# Entry
Amino acid sequence: MKSQRKTRQRKAIRAAIESAGRPLNAHEILDCAGRDLPDLGIATVYRCLKRLESEDFICRVEIAGQAARYELAGLHHHHHFFCDDCSRVFDVPGCGLAALNAPEGFAVREHEVVLRGLCSECAPATAL
Amino acid sequence: MKSQRKTRQRKAIRAAIESAGRPLNAHEILDCAGRDLPDLGIATVYRCLKRLESEDFICRVEIAGQAARYELAGLHHHHHFFCDDCSRVFDVPGCGLAALNAPEGFAVREHEVVLRGLCSECAPATAL
DNA sequence: GTGATATTGCAAACCTATTATCATTAAGAC
DNA sequence: GTCTTAATGATAATAGGTTTGCAATATCAC
# Structure
């Protein structure tokens, strides 16, 4: 087994994800972590994400038509909100799903709920 | 404005979508419509889908990590089920969503619910 | 049937997210 | 500090779905 080294890059990437409070994609992470490490490369971000995911430190959040996003693993069951304006993804606490309605014979293993609309920052601007 | 011609290809593609009873992606449509028209090309399928969508005859169904699927437009509100085994997408009647839970200030315009698991055909096989 | 042209099929081109390559850099055990 | 080698950054390469270019074909108004 190869040892892991604590690099500035990994620290910055982990910090970005931990402090975001919402799922980030590779570029958002690059932008965020890149503020401290201007030379940070996108390849490093992807490599690090892959590793963090295999270590179950983060989990992937996939939204149709969007690049994969990542957030801390182990959060309480929740769903996501996609802002049509700024394309940011936010966590929606809890689960509003009351019934599954799957057809007879279908075995549901998991479910996803994605709300779409305008986040609190974009809603006012668009409403004007 | 250019007139539209009724070609065998378009008829076969529309028929495939109308008779499917579930959302199909370009390749599924090619396979299905291709049974009657062996020479049908994937480019024609894409061109036709684009047109049918702009005419609001069909609507796009997007599922994370999957190629776009299409189904007849104007169906009653419903959601989708993705089979982890055969990768087919099925319609789930109704909507089990009781609450949206969007954060304060967020404006929800629409929502998607995707169930994942095994369809009735794949569930028994896997359960053995 | 004839002719104008919308449509097709094939293949090459695109696009965008992600991965691999590889020379260079820098952790960290000694 | 030295050395081994894991990790990085820049860039080329992938991969898959989708689009486009173009010559050949088929629709349909006449």
The domain at 78-127 of chain A is CATH 3.30.1490 (Dna Ligase; domain 1). Chain A is about 30% helix and 25% strand. The first strand of chain A starts at residue 24 and ends at 25.
